[in-house]
Amino acid sequence: MRGAQFAEMTAFAAVAEHRSFAKAATRLGVAVSTLSHRIRNIEERQGVRLLNRTTRSVAPTEAGERLLAELRPALGALEAAAQSIDGFRDAPAGRLRLTIPPPAVETLVAPLIVHFVSSYPKIHLEISVDGRSVDIVRERFDAGIRFGPLVERDMIGLRIGPAVRPVVVATPAYLTRRGTPRTPEDLAAHECIRIRLPSGGLLPWRFQRRGKIVEAAPAGSLVVNDRELELRAALDGAGLAYLLSNRVAAALGAGRLLPVLREWMPPASSFYLYYPSRRQVPPPLRAFLDFMRRDARATSEG
What we know:
about 300 residues; alpha/beta; Arc Repressor Mutant, subunit A; 3 domains; five-stranded mixed beta sheet; 11 helices
């Protein structure tokens, strides 16, 4: 049934049930003249009168009664179908699918998961930990988290967590043995622990030179695809590692790792929770956005 025909049938059912054009117009939120026009279209198309009208009353004809009897189950089913999704609009219930890279899971999301699921027991939270640049629309995720510069411009972004910056680190023993690099070019003489991305490529090391971001591909005999293993290898003295500052804050504070090339590092940025549109945000995602906003405020106030 086309949209115009559906509107006409809905108009007829409302007038026939209320026995009044005025009451039906109020219920449907349209003008009386609109209802009259829609019903006249049905009668002309079907070639049969459906309503008897006087200045004081309206009543369905025999044909109208039969049509109303046929329409009631169909319209009732449509109304029930619409009501079945009310919970997705009015309450934080339903499924929430997120794609999150490992660094954001470890430092931002994992500490909050228990609090979130206990606060919203009707939300079924599914988290995919993935280092890929996921197309959340194509892969049917509600939202994702990425480091600021990697979020597409057509996405809505909410900054979460503190600003962090990349840092190149190594143990004091490694730097004593191999020397301290002074420029990115010096990395060619060092063991650099590299990360293999899910796409198959190696994570580039980004530096800033004369205000512009440049990428380097340093050499190294150790390549891993796990951030925990990368950090452990750096702590064990296997070489230089390129990590986010919050991942190595404790080790730096304890002197187990030392930063190098600090004047070459890009400016600090943050992780962003991103999603496709501001319109009709699903309640589970809205709840998660509000939850992350509250956590961000609490962190800044603390």
